[in-house]
Amino acid sequence: MTRVYGTAESFKVRRTVVEMLIDRGYMVQSDDISPWSAEMLLGQTFQDFEAEFHTAPFSWKILGTHKLRKSNANSLNQETIKVRPVPVIDKELIDKLRVETQNKETRPLDRIIYVIYGREGKKLDSPNKTIQARIDEAQRVNGIIIEHFLVTRLLINITRHVLVPKHVLLSEMEKSVVLKEYRCTEGQIPIIESSDPMARYLGLLPNDVVRISRPSETVGIYTTFRICH
């Protein structure tokens, strides 16, 4: 029997989404006529959230903008991301997204995250092969990054768990410094799979490098690096 998610689950998911985008370096706001800041979204009580979304728990939308990742000393890249709860990822959804983003000069976003709330009970995080092929084509042709999470993956923020070490995505400049300092190549850095929960949380792309810091009784903080594969 398919479970119907309500405002309690939606409230938790939206909080995790906002925290995730903040951790990725975005300026976050609600994507509507009267946008709320990240602080206002995180500060909203469940009672107020329920009063606003009780008829349609997953009708909220999140917008993230002005993510600045330094590729070098004189270059700053801006990226726009949107989060959309959807019951399922299907052909119509991806085709509509492709139309909206086909013009790279005027498209409204660079990355989109779909929160899937209508597939409870199915263990697979990925759409079927046909839909995945359309997603891959949209990413290749339109140059947009498409991510998707099941509701069950966002009910809690995994980074807040005491056993999860701190992961920080390095900029291209920081990655170059690490490679030079340790006298190694990208191929010599241990791998973090793109399917790893922390890689998905941070939205890692191939060849992105993260710094992982763990508490250590002997050295205080033990630091390692992983490259996304």
TrEMBL record:
Pfam families: RNA_pol_Rpb5_C. Its main location: nucleus. Keywords: Transcription. The keyword Lyase does not apply. It is found in: Nucleus. One of its GO terms (cellular component) is RNA polymerase II, core complex. GO terms for molecular function: DNA binding; DNA-directed RNA polymerase activity. Residues 156-228 form the RNA polymerase subunit H/Rpb5 C-terminal domain. It comes from the Eukaryota. InterPro entries: Arch_Rpo5/euc_Rpb5 (IPR014381), RNA_pol_Rpb5_N_sf (IPR036710), RNA_pol_subH/Rpb5_C (IPR000783), RPB5-like_sf (IPR035913). GO terms for biological process: transcription by RNA polymerase II; transcription elongation by RNA polymerase I; tRNA transcription by RNA polymerase III. Belongs to the archaeal Rpo5/eukaryotic RPB5 RNA polymerase subunit family. This is RNA polymerase II subunit Rpb5a C-terminal domain.
